[in-house]
Fold this sequence. Notes:
Radius of gyration: 17 Å
Order of helices and strands: HHHHH
Number of domains: 1
Strand content: under 5%
Shape: flat
Helix content: over 70%
Mean pLDDT: 91
Amino acid sequence: MDYSIAHSLARQIEDSEECREYKRLKDIVDQSETTRALLKEYKRLQVLLQVAAMNHSSMPSEDMNRFSQISSLLYAGTDTSAYLLAEMRLQQAMADIFGILTRAAGLSMELPGVQ
């Protein structure tokens, strides 16, 4: 397999508007230790929420309340809100690319229990 095409795609991703904007905003939010800590906790709780949803269970109410509070704080801030939205756009683009590649390879990447 010729990996030069994969390296070319990686460079195109790095040069994309989505990636450049994500990195620019990440540099801004990383300047604040408090923001970094809030984002780390937000992402940890987000994973717990996703795992609970996949298992058709619920997250403990304390964690759910904390997730809601942190979400409100982060989305109220201009830079953090823009950063999180840029991250979502980049993740969606990467998911689309991954889907294209797995379909081309004939792989099924369905998660068990997810429709």
